[in-house]
């Protein structure tokens, strides 16, 4: 029996769907083959040896005795520091050091000569200071004592004084002599002196290194500054020759 080629159909192969119009795709149009992935490249990539996991060295604690020693040493240092600070504060509050009191008792000027042409000043100065230690429990020591006389804020003469010590509650009188020879003076100060009608304003200043102590306790060294400002000196003959401080003693400013 003969069959027409149009009525001939083949059974579809397993694993391939039927094509359009029920026609199965030929071998040239079949789906490509993809092999299964290698399991070792994916699942075991992060753990190359799953049977024997990696071994980590356990952390070893430092020597406990050494830690204990360091802690005790730190506590000792902190305790010593706190104790020294507490003792210093208590001693300071008990003794309460007070600044000495300075007053200018006299100031005389001789051979005062002011040259307007060269703006120079020549003169001799003689001054006396009264220093009082108001502390009832502390002694005050003075070192590197420097005194000067200034005109309009500019020093024209200076001298060093001998170091001295003041027992508690005592008063000391100190004197200083100094001279100025051809010292330059600002033109503003020259005009002020000439317009003073026989009166010149001078400043007396003292700088010293001081220290307070009571028995075994001593303070550190401090720079003491003394300022006696606008001291009026009246001359007998205009603004030349000899003159002296007007009024009584002048209280001075004292600071550290």
Automatic annotation (TrEMBL):
Keyword Transmembrane in annotation: yes
Xref: Pfam families: LEA_2
Subcellular location, record wording: Membrane
InterPro entries xref list: LEA_2, NDR1-like
Keywords, comma-separated and alphabetical: Kinase, Membrane, Receptor, Transferase, Transmembrane, Transmembrane helix
GO BP: defense response to other organism
Transmembrane spans: 73-95
Domain Late embryogenesis abundant protein LEA-2 subgroup intervals: 129-226
Coiled coil: none
GO cellular component: plasma membrane
Tree of life domain: Eukaryota
Membrane topology according to the record: Single-pass membrane protein
PANTHER family per the UniProt record, alphabetical: LATE EMBRYOGENESIS ABUNDANT (LEA) HYDROXYPROLINE-RICH GLYCOPROTEIN FAMILY
Protein known as: Proline-rich receptor-like protein kinase PERK9
């Amino acid at each position: 029996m003969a069959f027409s080629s149009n009525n001939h159909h083949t059974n579809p192969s397993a694993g391939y769907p039927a094509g359009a119009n029920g026609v199965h795709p030929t071998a040239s149009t079949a789906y490509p083959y993809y092999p299964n992935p290698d399991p070792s490249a994916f699942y075991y990539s992060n753990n190359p040896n799953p049977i024997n996991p990696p071994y980590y060295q356990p952390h070893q604690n430092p020597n406990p005795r050494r830690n204990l020693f360091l802690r005790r040493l730190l506590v000792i240092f902190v305790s010593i520091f706190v104790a020294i600070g507490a003792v210093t504060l208590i001693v300071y509050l008990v003794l309460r050091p007070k600044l000495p009191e300075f007053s200018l008792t006299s100031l005389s000027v001789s051979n005062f000569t002011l040259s307007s042409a060269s703006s120079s000043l020549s003169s001799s100065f003689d001054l006396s200071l009264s220093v009082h230690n108001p502390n009832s429990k502390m002694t005050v020591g003075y070192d590197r004592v420097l005194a000067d006389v200034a005109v309009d804020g500019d020093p024209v003469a200076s001298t060093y004084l001998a170091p001295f010590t003041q027992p508690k509650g005592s008063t000391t009188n100190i004197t200083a002599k100094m001279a100025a020879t051809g010292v330059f003076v600002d033109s503003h100060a020259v005009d002020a002196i000439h317009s003073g009608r026989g009166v010149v304003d001078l400043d007396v200043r003292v700088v010293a290194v001081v220290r307070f102590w009571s028995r075994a306790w001593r303070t550190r060294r401090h720079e003491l500054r003394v300022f006696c400002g606008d001291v009026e000196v009246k001359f007998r003959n205009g603004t030349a020759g000899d003159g002296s401080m007007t009024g009584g003693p002048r209280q001075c400013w004292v600071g550290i």
